[in-house]
Amino acid sequence: SRAGDAKDEL
Amino acid sequence: MNIFRLAGDMTHLASVLVLLLKIHTIKSCAGISLKTQELYALVFASRYLDIFTHYVSFYNTVMKLIFLGSAFSIVWYIRRHKLVRRSYDKDHDTFRHYFIVLPCLILALLIHEKFTFRVVMWTFSLYLEAVAILPQLVLLQRTRNIDNLTGQYVFLLGAYRALYILNWVYRYFTEPHYVHWITWISGLIQTLLYADFFYYYFQSWKNNVKLELPA
């Protein structure tokens, strides 16, 4: 996922 | 990953385990709102649609499976399990939660970072999670003696998003271009909704008295 993307969070 | 986010995820996991412990061991869901559990199942279903298409990390995938699995099994327990369902207080769990799903969906269709199915559904899950606790808080106001596990469950569920706010502050200062207003405002509203619960929870802990929310 893109750097700083919030979708790497739960 | 930073300690605030890890602490938030562990607190969220703890809330789920406390609830599963309560339901599975004493076969009771007294004080637990089925509507909030259904909203959370919808939150995870709409947020984790990309669980198999956008791999982030082993940890991320495992946690998503745990949250999805626990949310749906808790709904199943309260709806179907012959012993657990008897302790469900359906006469007081009357918040019209369907009335908050649609506005969240409409809002996600209007305000989002990108107009794609995945991002709109993810945004919908953020808006929905912000208000998902409302049926549970309403039920607590109507529940006379709130048992410890229920109080701990709600406390941990509120605390996890408060820790996520610290995570967002940390990431804002350490990662360039890390700006997600939608996530931040939703998370802030979500945490603020717990404000009075946190107050009464802290009072009951400090004065060592039963937790009770004023109606």
UniProtKB/TrEMBL annotation, chain B:
GO molecular function: ER retention sequence binding
InterPro entries from the UniProt entry: ER_ret_rcpt
Protein's GO biological process: protein retention in ER lumen; protein transport; vesicle-mediated transport
UniProt keywords, alphabetically: Endoplasmic reticulum, ER-Golgi transport, Membrane, Protein transport, Receptor, Signal, Transmembrane, Transmembrane helix, Transport
Coiled coil, from the record: none
Subcellular localization: Endoplasmic reticulum membrane
Topology versus the membrane: Multi-pass membrane protein
GO CC entries: endoplasmic reticulum membrane
Keyword Chloroplast attached: no
Protein name, UniProt field: ER lumen protein-retaining receptor
Organism, as annotated: Salix dunnii
